[in-house]
Amino acid sequence: MTRAPMMRATIEASLAACALLLGAVAPAAAAEEGGHGVHIERQTWSFGGFTGQYDKAQLQRGFQIYQDNCSTCHSLKRVRFRNLVEPGGPEFPEESVKALAHGWANKIVDGPDDQGKMFDREPKLFDPILGPFKNEKEGRAAYGAAPPDLSLMAKARNVEYTGTWWWHPVSMARDIATSYQEGGADYLYALLTGYGEAPGDMKVAEGLHYNAAFPGHQIAMPPPLAADSFVKYQDKTGSLEQNARDIAAFLSWAADPSLNGRKSTGWLVMLYLLVTTALLYAGKRVLWSKIPH
Amino acid sequence: MQHSSSYEPKSSFARWWDDRLPIMRLMHGQFVDFPTPRNLNYLWTFGGILTFCLAAQILTGVVLAMHYQPSGADAFNSVEAIRRDVNYGWLLRNLHAVGASMFFIAVYVHIFRGLYYGSYKAPREVLWIVGVLIFLVMMATAFMGYALPWGQMSFWGVTVITNLFSSLNEIIPGVGTAVVEWLWGGYSVSGTTLNRFFALHYLLPFVLAGLVILHIWALHVAGQNNPTGLDIKTKSDSVPMYPYAVAKDTVGLFAFLILFAWFVFFLPDYLGHADNYTEANPLVTPPHIVPEWYFLPFYAILRAIPSKLGGVIAMFSAIAVLVFVPWLDTSRVRSAKYRPLYKWFFWLLVISSIGLGYLGAKPPEGAYVIWSRIFTFYYFAHFLLVMPILGIIETPKPLPKSISASVLPGGASAPQGAAAAPETR
């Protein structure tokens, strides 16, 4: 046996040992991982995956929940009333949104007027959807914790991977292939349906509420929806789950209003790129066929 | 590679111009009839892909800068305005944010390709070192760019990374604090820091462009390496860059654009972090402060060392060590294709780097730390021990006689006409 193959055998053996070692440590690492994140169930969304688009009726129902329920505490300041009319959103008729803006309880502070005074006025289509509080401190003074703005909530939350480490790359590959971007909506749904009695051994602090999905399981927000207290739609139906699903969809739109256009443009771009790449490849094959390489 | 341009001006104006500024002659010589090894595989298309990435980042970046407000109060709002109110702002912003990740995917493929085929070895040392500088400037640019949306992860990422320089206090007391305050423009990370990061983020890409020109210049002096690692000896070893290499580069670029577009249109936020959709708040620390994915291996090295200064030194050394690779590798053979042992170690380096990337995103505790240390050890051992020792003790496989011998059936030399006038049948 010459030196090189012997060396090679040694190295192969060490590589195998490394792999074994990796396997031995794996369960320990996985067990540790389990304690960190909360497992959030994935939901089916009309806007999920690479073919998904918003469901106009769902966004309209979602807005109703925001209006009847969330807007008592939360603003939606990055969304303007006109966005509710624009394509790719709830697409309410312009006249009803004008009326909605006009009657919105939280007025716009404008000015200064000719006397140098600031004044309140009714919101117009181009104005943001404001909440009841002029600033964060006012919200905190009222509730102990300031109710956050909801415009980006669906993007600012995500679900953590909670499985084993060796499955992680597979899970990532699957998410990329199916273009999974709905972690925020999944989380919001889990949060809104996650209120309940704390498990026996857990003590919930004063003023906080138990929530299965919230990190740490203690949330300041009281349950906004409940099994016996939910928003009824115009056809008098509704349920906690349906409400949670619709508001999560609505907030997903609020955080990403260009999704419909983005995905439909995306398909044209992908089609163009696939065809062009195939043509270029065929051309390259023909060109190089005369050249050994 | 000595190579003179076969450019012939076709009009009297072109002749007049050529006598005064022979730029067409230069471009023709360097990018049309420049001899490229005939055996290049698709890994060699990443140079062109990277040039595209830089140009695309500059183009989208300049337009984004027209709508962006580099101040602590307005930065986050202006990025949201770009996403919501600027015509196709969502597209520009996705192209730029995803583009940064694609730039790094391409640069990592490019670097590992160089390491596999020994593209750093003589006479390409300077070419390689300029490449390491490009990598370093790219990382600085990306880091400052990630600060600009001024979300929670922007703010806390800047806080953590700039604070690393305070470890210099352990060498000379006071220096670290001075450097950090100089970077911040104050006593904490603030809008002032953001403002100077924006100025530098706009400047550095042009420094990059200059370095890229030097990189391509050095490449065109030495000529391209190739899968055999052999030099071009006869005319039949090469084909003219146009149309052959250009056709292949274009296929590679478009295939890469498919991946790029997939993320831009269907997964724009996958490579980012949800916390960055919350506006920067100095009073609330996110539970996990994690850098962008392309920094994770270096972040893991930083945290693998149990001392702050040591970690910082290790992290910067992980890049600095690359500068010495041309001299650390003692092998007489360039390409790992003919290095039966080195091949294994190369893949061990790849696994270590990916492993470090995975661990960089994990909390620094328990088994994660142990594995970070193992992989960090191998990362450095690969360059400082394996490369010098293996080159001496390894017996390389027999090399083909020439590039054309490696691709032609029977190893014969190509017919003379094949490369000289390949477009005529």
Break the fold down into its secondary structure elements and pairings.
The complex is a heterodimer of chains A (about 290) and B (about 425).
Chain A: H1 3-34, H2 56-68, E1 76-80, H3 94-102, E2 108-110, E3 119-121, E4 128-129, H4 136-143, H5 153-156, H6 168-178, H7 183-192, E5 209-210, E6 218-219, H8 240-255, H9 259-288
Helix pairs in contact in A: 2-8, 7-8
Chain B: H1 12-20, H2 23-31, E1 35-37, H3 46-65, H4 75-84, H5 89-117, H6 125-147, H7 152-163, H8 175-184, H9 191-222, E2 238-240, H10 241-266, H11 296-304, H12 308-323, H13 325-328, H14 342-360, H15 366-393, H16 403-407, H17 416-420
Antiparallel strand pairs in B: 1-2
Helix pairs in contact in B: 3-5, 3-9, 3-10, 4-5, 5-10, 6-7, 6-9, 6-12, 11-12, 11-14, 11-15, 14-15
Description:
The complex is a heterodimer of chains A (293) and B (425). Chain A has helices at 3-34, 56-68, 94-102, 136-143, 153-156, 168-178, 183-192, 240-255, 259-288, and strands spanning 76-80, 108-110, 119-121, 128-129, 209-210, 218-219. Chain A has 293 residues and is mostly helical. In chain A, the strands form three sheets. In chain A, strands 1-4 form a two-stranded antiparallel ribbon. In chain A, strands 2-3 form a two-stranded antiparallel sheet. A two-stranded antiparallel ribbon of chain A has the order 5-6. Chain A is globular, with a radius of gyration of 27 Å. Chain B has 425 residues and is mainly α. Chain B contains 17 helices and two strands. Chain B has helices spanning 12-20, 23-31, 46-65, 75-84, 89-117, 125-147, 152-163, 175-184, 191-222, 241-266, 296-304, 308-323, 325-328, 342-360, 366-393, 403-407, 416-420, and strands spanning 35-37, 238-240. The longest helix of chain B has 32 residues, at 191-222. The two termini of chain B are 28 Å apart. At the A-B interface, helix 1, helix 6 and helix 9 of A face helix 4, helix 5, helix 10, helix 14 and helix 15 of B.
